Amino acid sequence: DTKAEARYLNRFLSRNRIEAPRKGIFVNRELVHRIAKYAAVMGQGEASIGAYVEEIILEHLERNAATIKSLFNASPLTRL
């Protein structure tokens, strides 16, 4: 579906990114290589790995917000 592909590229691999302080995380090397390949090819050299991963995480948090909030609030660690 061409529309779905366009929405995906716009959401995950567009050039417009909010500049913010960054912090590194550790991820399986094979996964990094896979994501790097996707970002380079689909983003036509315009998208960074970090921006792609950031959008994936943001979408996950948006889609699962209610469940995450419920689990977080039910955790005894939230009282710290």
Main traits of this protein?
4 helices, 80 residues, mainly alpha, single chain
Describe the structure.
The protein has about 80 residues and is mainly α. The protein has one domain (about 1-15, about 20-80). Helices cover about 60% and strands about 0% of the residues. The protein contains four helices and no strands. The chain has helices spanning about 1-10, 30-40, 50-65, 65-75. It starts with a helix and ends in a 6-residue tail after the last helix.
Query: What is the element string, with H for helices and E for strands?
Result: HHHH
Cα shape: globular
Mean pLDDT: 88
As for the number of domains, it is 1
Largest beta sheet, briefly?
none
Please provide the count of β strands: 0
Low-confidence blocks of residues: none
Radius of gyration in whole Å, from Cα?
16 Å
β content, as a range?
under 5%
Q: Between the first and last Cα atoms, what is the distance in angstroms?
A: 47 Å
**Structure classification:** mainly alpha
**DSSP summary: helix tally:** 4
Q: Helix coverage percent of residues?
A: 55-70%
